[in-house]
Amino acid sequence: MASAEPILPIVVDTLALALVTSSDAPILLLDGSLRVVAASASFARAFQIEPASIKGAPIFALGAGEWDVPQLRSLLNATLSGAADIEAYEMDLTRPKGAPRRLVITAHQLDYADEGDVRLLLAVSDVTDARLAERLKDDLLREKAMLFQELQHRVANSLQIIASVLMQSARRIPSAVTRGHLYDAHSRVMSVAALQHQLAASSLGEVELRAYFIELCASIAASMIADPEILTLTVEADEGVATADVSVGLGLVATELVINALKHGFPGGRGGRIVVGYRSRGNDWTLTVTDDGVGMPTGALPAKAGLGTSIVQALAKQLGAEVNVTDAKPGTSVSIGHSTEPTLVRDLKLASAA
Fold first, then answer.
1. Model confidence pLDDT, tens digit, residues 225-239
2. Which helix (H) or strand (E) segment is 88 a member of?
3. pLDDT digits over 266-276, tens only?
4. Judgement on whether residues 49 and 184 belong to the same structural domain of the protein
5. Cβ 141 vs Cβ 150: under 8 Å
6. Final residue before a domain boundary, out of 104, 126, 148
7. Which pLDDT belongs to residue 309?
């Protein structure tokens, strides 16, 4: 039985040799001096080394000496001492002929009964093409993002040109009714133009609503408020964000409600204040437009109404939101709220809070 113990290293060596020689992947079996005990045929082919020159040679002398990399030498010596294993060490292999190759090295010490008889199993993966593909993909994604951003800028600029044409046409038309419709159309176009500007500034495809509403209201005020000292339009919003689709709906709703407040809340050059508010919590949000004008009937929006009201109703339905009109004392407050809570639960919470 005593003679069986030395057989174990021989068995392990035999198995390791069989594994290396039969492998389709580039593999080396190294001894304690980091000399090649065996190499797979694929290793010689992959790195264009004469097979007869590999066995018995130090790994750092293979080829034209391109494997003599200081970091690799340190890692292999640490693996020999048992201080570390090489799991995925990346290195560039620079050969006298041909382009550099990007390699991933994995090395493990084999478990021998005789500690003096050490073997390292070293596997090599050539990831040059994969890394190149990753870089190309990253470059394409960056180029796509730049082109998309440029598209957003161009769309925004085109919309601003259309809005400018509408404004010029409105100033030349004698009919007050037609002029009012053109002013409304101008504000609606500018609502989408402001959104395009915000999308162009965003790298995540989401719109920062506070900045969006501020730009939107500034545009509406410039075209529809004659004296900003008498009538003001301000924004009170949190730091909520929304997708482009939701932002379009919110911007158009805000535009229609502000237009409605300007038309009906401040007759005869009356002064006052309009506030666009936005509050969010998770997926729940509330958009409000409040004025301190002459007021209007409270309750739900009327079933039969003008274009602006119809747009608000349609957009609220699309956003899965509810519209409510309340008396602001003075003035009117119109809110559009989206909630993920069931209506019964929300009503109970409101009742308990009251």
1. 888 889 999 999 999
2. strand 86-93
3. 988 889 999 99
4. no
5. no
6. 126
7. 78
**Residue 251 and residue 147 in one domain:** yes
Domain tally for the chain?
2
Q: For tokens 């509050």, name the residue.
A: 279
Question: Which single residue is written with the structure tokens 């004698």?
Answer: 174
Distance between CA atoms of residues 298 and 328, nearest Å: 10
Q: Between β-strands 86-93 and 206-208, what pairing exists: parallel, antiparallel or unpaired?
A: unpaired
Q: How confident is the model at residue 324 (pLDDT cuts 50, 70, 90)?
A: very high
How many Å apart are CA 289 and CA 337, to the nearest integer? 12
CA–CA distances in Å: residue 333 to residues 175, 217, 239, 311: 31, 17, 22, 17
Distance in angstroms (rounded) separating the CA atoms of residues 194 and 220: 11
Q: Is 210 in the same domain as 115?
A: no
What Å distances lie between residue 232 and 22, 262, 264, 266, 270, CA to CA? Answer: 82, 10, 15, 11, 11
Beta bridge partner(s), residue 35: 58
List the domain range (segments joined by +) for residue 22. 2-126
